[in-house]
Amino acid sequence: DADVTQTPRNRITKTGKRIMLECSQTKGHDRMYWYRQDPGLGLRLIYYSFDVKDINKGEISDGYSVSRQAQAKFSLSLESAIPNQTALYFCATSGDRNQPQHFGDGTRLSIL
Amino acid sequence: AQSVTQPDIHITVSEGASLELRCNYSYGATPYLFWYVQSPGQGLQLLLKYFSGDTLVQGIKGFEAEFKRSQSSFNLRKPSVHWSDAAEYFCAVGGTGGFKTIFGAGTRLFVKA
């Protein structure tokens, strides 16, 4: 089984819909992250969490929200999806500060 | 501010040829440096990391990278490329003073027979 699992793997939806992307991990890491990947832009950080009581905005948090339901679960929500949120979304985890991150396989989200 | 530049958007090499992917970083303190690889339909996988010590680091799949502080570079190398190395490669930087890792835009590697 994968250490970092993202669901769904693919999603197509319409503008204005609410969408939740889920991430669960079995690595026992406290730190979890949500990124979006766009061609030519690399990965950009949306939100990150250092533990269940600690949530922080990344560089592109507008239009997104997150919930850390447990150490192992970190979900990303788009309250009202818009087409420019079409992207590949990754969840990642890490141990101590600046340790390498472990990535899920991504969710490809298309908003029509 | 932290930044990472990967000057080459894509590179094509012949199978069996050597490879060097460039990475330049900007960081005000001691950098933590990483190279990740992303195969199609998958997440990023760590190839290697540099925290301190020997400036030539070995990674998985036969890759190595050299940290050159004077040039603010952390280039990735492989002496003989295999077709299975075709993927996108990301350089990333973090540091002792921060808690965020910054990723470069990536270099896509094509391998021709």
Task: Describe the fold and architecture.
The complex is a heterodimer of chains A (112) and B (113). Chain A is built from no helices and 11 strands. With 112 residues, chain A is mostly beta strands. In chain A, strands 2, 4, 5, 6, 9, 10 and 11 form a 7-stranded mixed sheet that branches. A 4-stranded antiparallel sheet of chain A has the order 1-3-8-7, with no helix packed on it. In chain A, strand 5 (42-51) and strand 6 (54-57) form a beta hairpin. With 113 residues, chain B is mostly beta strands. Chain B has no helices and 12 strands. In chain B, strands 2, 5, 6, 10, 11 and 12 form a 6-stranded mixed sheet that branches. Chain B has a 4-stranded antiparallel sheet with strand order 3-9-8-7, with no helix packed on it. A two-stranded antiparallel sheet of chain B has the order 1-4. The model of chain B has no long low-confidence stretch (mean pLDDT 92). The interface between A and B is medium-sized, with 21 and 25 residues.
Q: What percentage of amino acids of chain B are in beta strands? A: over 45%
Q: Tell me the helix content of chain A.
A: under 10%
Biggest interface pair, residues each?
A-B, 21 and 25 residues
- Beta-strand content bin of chain A: over 45%
Termini separation of chain A comes to 32 Å
Per DSSP E runs of 2 or more residues, the count of β-strands of chain B stands at 12
The chain-level structural class of chain B is: mainly beta
Using the alpha-carbon principal axes, give the shape of chain A: globular
How far apart, in Å, are the first and last alpha carbons of chain B? 41 Å
Main pleated sheet of chain B = 6 strands, mixed
Question: Outline of chain B, from the CA principal axes?
Answer: globular
Compute the number of helices of chain B. Answer: 0
Poorly predicted residue ranges of chain B: none
Low-confidence stretches of chain A: none
Q: Write down the secondary-structure element order of chain B.
A: EEEEEEEEEEEE
The overall pLDDT average of chain A reads 93
Rg of Cα set of chain B = 13 Å
